Amino acid sequence: MKSILSLSILICFTVTVYTQEVSVKDADNNVLMEIYDHGRTGSIFLKEGVILLTGFEDKLYNVSGKLYWNGLKLGTATEAAGWTLNGSNLYPTTLSTKVGIGTITPSHSFQVEGTSGNDITMALSNLSNSGYTQLLFGTEPTSDGSILLFGSSHLGSANKFRFRNNRGGGLFDWWLNGGVKMSLNRNGLLDVAGSMKIGNDGVTSSAGTMRYNAATQKFEGHNGIGWNTFGGAGKWSENGSDIYYNNGNVGIGTSSPGSMLHLYGNTTSPVELTIQNQDNAGSERIDFGISHSEQATIQVYGSSHALYPG
User: Fold this and answer.
1) Cα angle at 272 between 268 and 273, to 5 degrees?
2) Cβ neighbour number for residue 293 with a 10 Å cutoff
3) Which ranges of the chain have pLDDT less than 70?
């Protein structure tokens, strides 16, 4: 099949050449360029060179089988504008190349910048709610650390935001409903170098839960039955500098006291109750009755007491 090649000559008339191929050669009859007719399509052949040319603006040339325009390499099937395609993987042809989005001078391996008043957003999306998205860190990304977001239908970890370290199960889980769980696998499960604030959500009451009761200004823990105040006082309550227990009997040496204060022992030694005043000018006293100042007392005076010595 023949085509029509029209050449416009400066003296304003047209010469028409019927051909299937046009060749451009140098003085030594070397082919520099060829134009082919393929029916409804065509192609151009450029002679391959081995030296990257400079100073050729608006020029197209072939160096080692790759096309260049103004000194910049054009795309091929596996390489384009500094990127290389290897199977389904795409990476910078020069591995030390820094990649910038919104900047022409990235200072990091991957850098995103913006100058508008809008937020700068980088999205990782998994269209399957039963899967998760993951951002990996470290020289060994499968073991050093990662940040994961599990989908709403993920089996076992739905709606969970997870920070993972490389310490064999060290995790920080943050549920999207606000719940937090830590397992950092250090000397202690939770090591906080600073302050930690605990509030009272007024709802959670499962065993092992801690809270701060703003009404009583005390820290409390839940044992699965009810809330108990922390601080070592146990069942004791405070009133200023005093502590008291009004809900039953107190036993020392027995778990089933039969009186308000029950001392119990099972020993050949005496079961003793000691009341001692180290100031010999004072006394020790046990009061009986409704009012200790009006009923009966047992009182022992010190050896230096002013009125009743010894």
Assistant:
1) 165
2) 7
3) 1-19, 50, 52-56, 76-77, 79, 81, 140-143, 166-170, 177-193, 231-234, 291-294
In residues, how long is the chain?
Answer: 310
The token duo for 291 is: 């009012």
157, 142 Cβ separation under 8 angstroms: no
> How many beta carbons lie within 10 A of that of residue 297, not counting itself?
12
For the record, the structure tokens of 283 come out as: 């006394």
In DSSP notation, 108-172 reads SSEEE---SSSPP------S-TTSEEEEEESSSTTTSEEEEEE-TT-TTTTTEEEEE-SSSS-EE
At 73, the amino acid letter reads K
Q: What would the pLDDT profile of 195-246 be if each residue is shown by its tens digit?
A: 777 787 777 778 888 888 888 888 888 888 888 887 655 677 778 888 888 8
Six-digit token string for 224: 């699965």
Residue 220, pLDDT score: 85
Taking the C-alpha atoms of residue 20 and residue 42, their distance in angstroms, rounded to an integer, is: 10
